[in-house]
Known about the structure:
Blueprint: E1 7-11, E2 14-18, E3 34-36, E4 43-45, E5 48-49, H1 50-56, H2 59-68, H3 74-86, H4 92-98, H5 106-120, H6 129-156, H7 168-176, H8 185-198, H9 205-215, H10 220-231, H11 239-250, H12 256-265, H13 284-296, H14 300-320, H15 326-336, H16 344-365, H17 387-390
Helix pairs in contact: 1-8, 2-16, 3-6, 5-6, 5-10, 6-7, 6-16, 8-13, 8-15, 8-16, 9-10, 9-16, 10-16, 11-15, 12-14, 13-14, 13-15, 14-15
The structure holds coenzyme A.
The site of coenzyme A has 14 residues, from helix 15.
Amino acid sequence: MSTTLCEKVVREGREFVRVPKGLANVIIDQTTISGVDPEGKETIYRGYLISDIGKHASFEEAAYLILYGELPCDEELKEFSRKLNSERWIPTKLIDALKTVPITHPMYYGAFGVLLLGMYDPNPDDMSRDTLYDRAIKIIAKLPVIFANGWYLSRHGHEIKPDQSLRHAGDVLRMILGGGIMPGDIEIRAFESSLVLYMDHGFNASTFTNRVIASTLSDMYSAVAGAIGALKGPLHGGANQRALEMMLEIGEPEKARAYVEEKLKKKEKIMGFGHRVYKVHDPRTDVLREWLSKLAEYNPEARKFLAMIDELEKAMWELKKIPSNVDLYTAALYHVLGIPKDLYTPIFAIARVVGWTAHYIEQVTHNKIIRPKEEYVGPTGFKYIPIEERCKR
Length: 393
Ligand SMILES: CC(C)(COP(=O)(O)OP(=O)(O)OC[C@H]1O[C@@H](n2cnc3c(N)ncnc32)[C@H](O)[C@@H]1OP(=O)(O)O)[C@@H](O)C(=O)NCCC(=O)NCCS
């Protein structure tokens, strides 16, 4: 049933377009938030190259850019940071609810917590413009607190308290690490850079999910919860955790080539390689390589993982002409920073929620319900038979 080309078909007396399975190569709408440049080399955030913003911008500057469409000036940045910090907490009732969650995949905690935020919002369906932006900031600020508490309450029984005097990225990293240690400046900047690089990426699967929910004019909490569900999948946000598991399995850089050869022989995929858009090079890897190199100056684990990445990249390019992607580098970076691997995909969500909320606002502002047409290929013409007769046969 898979199709590779768009074709016109007539059904029910009307003309439809049949598009490739998975919507591959289908443009479904326009956006001014982010997308790949016409040559397919880099992603653009509101006119800026992702590598430029990823290298230089703070979390707050980049989030402001994605949400409002331009980089902030002094006062705007101060006000945005103030709002973001003041929202970085969660109500006691949410903490109490997170005390009851079992040890499970932490992405569940995110979806659960965001829906609870919606339940405590007295007017979640208010779509006025200011309310939408305030709600976006609230969800962006609270999501990391939800993930950190879901994880540490379920595993270790202790609550993680945010420190609103810190900037967002530093406090998020501190909370993700259990709340006790304040990471160093280079560690925080490297982590912040990864959040900025993860912040948005066109109509990827979770953003598309979020836009479908928004298009029904459902509320922002529901759209973000749905997007978290889509990001959880191993074909989307789950790749960074799997890339780390792969590198841990390889163990030493010298063993990387043999590992790649073996996997390719078995037609298995190498995690952290390949991309639907970047066929030669993922520009986000350059920024993260710089951070890993800085860390490698004093951290032997960073040196080892950089050497492993080099070997993997060499082997994959020689054997398959496939470049590495951002997830190979975030996997190594988060490992070097000491982050538990199950929290890698939640970190992706903590960053991508900026894109989701911006896309939500864009979708509801220029809305048309997203409702494609199915092609029914099952049987027809059956007649209902009462159960007594049906089961006699
Ligand atoms: C990201 C990904 C889904 C892109 O998919 P895509 O553009 O549809 O590319 P395809 O899956 O069709 O792959 C095209 C070819 O390259 C191969 N390929 C792609 N990524 C590969 C990988 N990581 N390891 C080994 N082979 C790979 C495919 O097997 C296929 O080979 P074939 O033509 O001999 O059958 C894919 O590269 C992948 O699964 N990568 C691993 C997971 C990952 O790192 N995801 C994070 C993306 S940011």
